[in-house]
Design a protein that fits this description.
The protein is α/β, with parallel strands linked by helices and 345 residues long. It contains eleven helices and 15 strands. It folds into two domains: 2-146 and 290-342, Quinone Oxidoreductase, Chain A, domain 1; 151-286, NAD(P)-binding Rossmann-like Domain (Rossmann fold, 3-Layer(aba) Sandwich), CATH 3.40.50.720. 26% of the residues lie in helices and 23% in strands. The chain is globular, with a radius of gyration of 19 Å. InterPro entries: ADH-like_C, ADH-like_N, ADH_Zn_CS, ER, GroES-like_sf, NAD(P)-bd_dom_sf, Zn_alcohol_dh.
Length: 345
Amino acid sequence: MRAAVLREYNADLSLEEVADPTCPEDGVVLEVMACGVCRSDWHGWVGEHPRVKPGQIMGHEYCGTVVEAGARAKFAIADRLVAPFILACGACPSCQSGHQNTCPNQRLPGFIEPGAFAQYIAVPFDHNLAILPDTLSPTVAAGLGCRVTTAWHALTGRAAVQAGEWVAVHGTGGVGLSAFLLAKALGARVVVVDIVEEKLTHALSLGADAAVNASAGDTALAIREITGGGAHVSIEALGIEATTNASIECLRPLGRHVQVGMPVGHTAKMQINMNAVYMGNLALFGTRGMPSWRYPSLLSLIESGAVDMTPLVAREIPLSSASDELRAFNGPTAPGVAVITDFTA
C-alpha cells in the first residue's frame, strides 16, 4: 500500500510502498476514505511528541470502509466506520467506569502504531468504532476522530456548558473552530480569540457573538468587558502559556477553564497565574479525546441538523500534500483544516 512515512523530523514525509497491515483478531482493516491533518501530527513531525519516532506512519483522524475483519471483530466487511484516536481496551477499571479516554492499555494508531496517512489501517479494539451515518460525508467525518470529539467532550463531558453561558475559545484552528460551532449548537454565546484576523472574520460569519484579536492588547480584559464580568467557560485550544493564562484570567468567579490544546515538548510545563485560580474560585479541567460511548450524542446532534460541521474543512488534499500542511503549522494558519481524500496522488 502507499503511505506517507516520517523518516526525519521537520522534513517532507517519505511517500513509500509499504506492506499492507495485518488484521488484528479483535479488530478490522479499513480502507481509508479520509484522514485529517492535525496539529497533533505536527507535534510529532517536529519531534516534540515523545511517542512519535522516525519510521512512523502518522494520521489519527480517519474514517474508512472495512475490507477485512478479525475473528473477534464486532464489525463486518463493507461497514463504514469512524474511529476515535484513543482505542481503549474495554476491560480495565477506567473503561468499565466509562472513562475510556483514560484507559492505561489504550492503542494509538498514528502515534505509536501505523496511522492513516496510508491507503489502509489496522484498527484493534474495534468496539471503539462507530458506524458512519450515510448523511455524513467522509471528509467531514474524519475530524470526528479527534478535533470534533475532543471539543464535544470538553464542552459537555468536562465543562458541562449550559445554554446562555458565555464561552471563550482561545485559538480557532481545527479544535477551536469545532468548539465554537458546538458551543453555539448548545445555546451558548461565544467569543473567539485568535491573532489571524481572517480567522476571526470567518468565525463571525459563522455566528460567533464576538471576536478578540489577541495581538491587540489585554485579551482577558477584552473578554471580561464583552461578557459583562467574564466567561463562564473558557477553552484553551493551542497548548501554549500565553493563551492558557488568558483563558484562566478571562473567567468570571466560579468559571471553568478546559485545557484542550496539547502542552507537549517545550510547552509541557508553564508558569500559570494560580492567584487568578485561587481568587476566582475557578475550576481547571484537562481533557484528551472522548470516551467512545459518547459518539451517539455527537452524531445525533450533527444528523439532526442542529450543527453544521462542514465549515471545519477548508480543503481536500492528496497524500502527497500532507507535508505542506504540516509545515504550515509552523506559523499562523488560515481558517479551516485540510483533509486527505486521495491516497494515490
